[in-house]
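Notes from the 1:1 (GR / supervisor)

We went over the backlog. Supervisor wanted to see one worked example end to end before approving the batch request, so GR pasted a single chain during the call. The sequence is below; no edits were made to it. Supervisor asked that the structure be written out right there so they could see what the output format looks like.
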Amino acid sequence: MLVDSASSLANRLGISALVIGLTVVAFGTSAPELAVNILASLSNSTDIAIGNILGSNIVNILLILGVSAIFYPLAVQKGTVWKEIPFALLAVVVLGFLVADFEVSRNDGLVLIFFFAAFIIYIYRLTRREKSTNTILADSKNGVSQSLVKSWTMVIIGMVGLVVGGKWIVDGAVAFAAGFGVSEALIGLTIVAIGTSLPEMATSIVAAYKKNVDIAVGNIVGSNIFNIFWILGVSSIIQPLPFSSGLTTDLKVTFVVTLALFLALFVGKKYILERWQGVAFVILYIFYTAYLIVRG
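Structure output shown during the call:
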């Protein structure tokens, strides 16, 4: 409800598919991560909060873009290759510098929010240069063109639902970790990360299937930027987040995976994530998950 209704609102403003993917859809599909992280921060389950963000970003690229590319090769716009993907890479680098003292403090949170504001300004300027284009999520032919009242109502209901679901996820994840004797970081990087990434998965796979590549790619790249700059920023302002040394490897993996997405667009057909590359991404994710399980 949240994604469809928010996209319907954006469509009325004449925003392009790429911009909708990078902002409205990315924000909507990242809302579960936001709900989970705020609740995890308030309950001092900081490893779940940080693990959820790093895990979600890895899931988004390796699993979701990988599966999406298998459905339909993803031709990525030149601007996305040279601007938005490097911005997602910058997010990981900035986080790496901030956690050098093994904490995401409130001041660090403000730095992250500053970069998020810069991203929003960039998107605002982008919208001024673009004309409206069709989107799969805000197209009356797909049954999601709604009145303003209905759109706002569904957005609010969707947000409430995500907060409730987020609480269930955090409570369940903590109980699972305690019951099976595994770390909260592992639960955050796997079960919680995959669970909160399901909206991105549904959105990008449907977009790829319907050959709306801008939504499929924009959703993932935008979500990854939102996850670090916005969600971790807000979470750490609410409650400073200790960064356990065990998560350092996962931060490096997030950087390598994001860089791999950028480089993959220059291998084979330029600016296209091909089916074989999608298969490779999925295989890499399986190996990464196996490593996490062995590491415990």
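Supervisor's comment: The chain has eleven helices and four strands.
Batch request approved.
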